[in-house]
Amino acid sequence: MIGIVIEALIKSALIAFVLLTAFAYLTFAERKIAALMQVRKGPNRVGPWGLLQPAADGIKLIFKEEVMPAGADKVLFFLAPILTMIPAIVIVAVIPLGPDVELFGRTIRLGITDLNVGLLYILAIASVAVYGIVLAGWSSANKYALLGGLRASAQMISYEIALGLSIIGPIMLAGTLSLQGIVQAQQSSTWYVLWQPLGAMIFLIAGLAELNRAPFDMPEAEQELTAGYFTEYSGMKFSLFFMGEYIKMVAVSAIATTLFFGGYLGPFVDKLPWLGILYFAIKTVGFLFLMIWIRLTLPRLRYDQLMAFGWKVLLPLALFNVVITAVVIVFVG
Amino acid sequence: MSDKDSLDNMPVNEVASDSLVARFDGEVRSDTREGYEGYIVDANMLPEVASVLRDDLGYDYLSSVTGVDYIDDNHIEVVYHADQTTGGKGINLKVQLDRENPIVPTLVPIYPGADFQEREVFDMYGVKFDGHPNLRRILMWDGFHGYPLRKDWKEAYYEEDIKPFDSRWPGGGVKRSEADNPYGKNVNYPPGFDINNWTPETDDSLYESLEKTNSNGKSLHTDSIVVNIGPQHPSTHGVFRMVVALDGETITDLQPVMGYLHRNHEKIGERNTFLQNMPYTDRLDYLCSMSNNLGYALAVEQLMGADVPERAQYIRVLMAELTRISNHMWAIGFLLNDLGAFQTPALYAIRARELILDVFEATAGSRMMCNYMRFGGLARDFPDTLRGEDTVKFITDLVDNTLPKAIDELDHFLTANEIVRSRCIGVGVLPPDKAIAYSTGGPLLRASGVSYDLRTADPYSIYDRFDFNICTRSNGDVYDRYLVRVDEMRESTRICQQVMRDIPAEGEIFSGKPQYSVKVPAGESYGRVENPKGELGYYVVSTGKANPYRYHVRAPSFVNLTVLGELCKGHKVADAVVILGSIDIVLGEVDR
User: Fold this and answer.
1) 10 Å Cβ neighbour count for B388?
2) Residues 399-438 (B) with a CB less than 8 A from some CB of A
3) Tens of pLDDT along A275-309?
């Protein structure tokens, strides 16, 4: 019993640490990739190739003044960044990072846990994150923030439905809600992206919208709302929002990898289970790169176009996808 | 060619003069002062004269409205410049008003484009425009006392009327005027003003004046909110403020508020000598200093009757057209930024612009503040080498290969982009009649299908020698403005190619001998150029002294903003930003 608790604690601490580091270097990677795509050099002053830049940024943010707007609702204003940050980390708990491995004579699951309702858990937790954004917009007593919060709530509601429907496909194919189960099901068939190309597409698009990443970054649209819902935030509270967004990026990439791209599967994983983590990381990083690439390439949609796209295009397509999948499963098997 | 043109144009002006003077006998007379032209109109007859001018004589485009304070004659003159969009020389009308109580009927109902310019004259001279819908200060703040461009208005730390100041020159020792005038001693507070009990004006009246509607008031009660976009905002392209009334995300009314960068450019210009103003024009539209220089040089050369040598003319055109390309690159790049593209298009656009700035730097000595033109020529000729290459070869290669390629690249990646199209098409539509009525200029006017470009409408410098098209589009939306800019860049490279082909290899670049102080005969002149952003005009009045008596800048960005509120109504917040970006303003020029 104690062994299980210690194992869970160690794994949790390790994953939290990895995620926070990933966040820091994701911001760095984004800046470097942006620079390379935009014929500039990017950060190159702090440490070799600018590698210590995230550390410098972190130190700077910690020592920044925390400004509390006079008209703000203090409790909610304080709570909002936490509400955005926590769910982003918690989501990762159910994602399998590799097959079981033997270590110190124990069989250890790579991944914190394997809930049999893992996907439901993910959807439930992801929905909580929007409260952080809405509350931040509402409690700041700032009109830009308010508009950003309103946009966020409308956008999340519209896209969560398409997101939820797009993952029905893998569930039906695998016959389980457990992520570990879905990965293993892909071992016997093949990556679900081949069976569910439409579903994967919808998942990625809705995922971007859920993340508030470009071209769906309406709630924080710099050119329109200065910084949207976190206009009034500074210092560590600001960076918590930032952290939440980037960790969610990692989480969504990881989920996409798991559901559609075979998770940790790859050649020789059955012989060398540790390779699973490597495959998983490579696939996740690929999605992260895709997200950065999209941000650097596309202009932003307009708020009403975004809503129209969500309700009139994505939702029917997702429903269609579910129906087709069901029909094929019933008749073809 | 040019002889024939002037013959063609002559009769129009003759007809104008004959019929104006004949129809309004005694109320309109020719301006017969030495060095002046145009007509002097009785104040109360102005709206009728303007209607005749617009409807019967075809002067449908009000270019400029400004004032001059003739303090010795005890009157303030309001000067109007009008044009035909079919081309030809402009016409100017003047109204002479009593300095104590200057009132003149507004022209806003006839030429809506007079709106901001009349407010500026009110702000600077205290001329009341009877019937103006919104006669408030525009560049100064509402609580400001006095009218800064009147000749008897003195600023804090006032030293002398004209430069060079005795305290600095020729004695040589720098003595700062602040030493003589510690703050407070020479500041004139308005009567009844108490600094200790002063509270700054609020903008409540402005907020209340906004039109607010509840579009779905029937079913659901909604409140509109007023949002200040700016003065500190990432997308206002400087310190510019849009006061916006919103119903949800839909704009019901928008009022531009400007003047945060106001430095009384024109007063300083009247204090400078003629030549001292040249570097000062760089600071107007700081992206287009070369063509700013050109406009001012033309205005003063008109007064002086100076000749410009052949080679200098070619270089002037080359520089003006390179400026146009670099400005449009910037405008397109930042339009994409306003659309939410994360800097990438902007940086690629700037990369091409960088090479143009290299040419400016090597030739004029500065990348942006070029200070390159002189009255009667240029400051310097091309350098021998540029970036290690022969200058002529470098520029030829630039305009033949590099720039067309860069333009094609932008065109290739942006024009067909689905998101760009869906964000831009049908947004901020400006119909042609409104575009003319609001005195808009540049790509904004031509995207609405009005083929009006001073380079052909009233050719200056040597533009009549080149083969190029005036680019127009018909829908007048943001997308068409973007397309017109792309087309114009292509035409500009064509002009540059012709310049590099035809330019005399050797020759003078300056007529006469260089001097610090030029002799400018008394009179008025209105020198104007087609700047990348629209018509840039300089109204200069000389009394024969070393300083201009009046130096007015008709800034295209400023006038183009008149129509902004109209364009944004009914669109979303995100569109307002894009529409502003598509108008392409520079605050240095708006606020002056």
Assistant:
1) 6
2) 417, 419-420, 422-423
3) 888 888 899 999 999 999 998 888 888 888 888 88
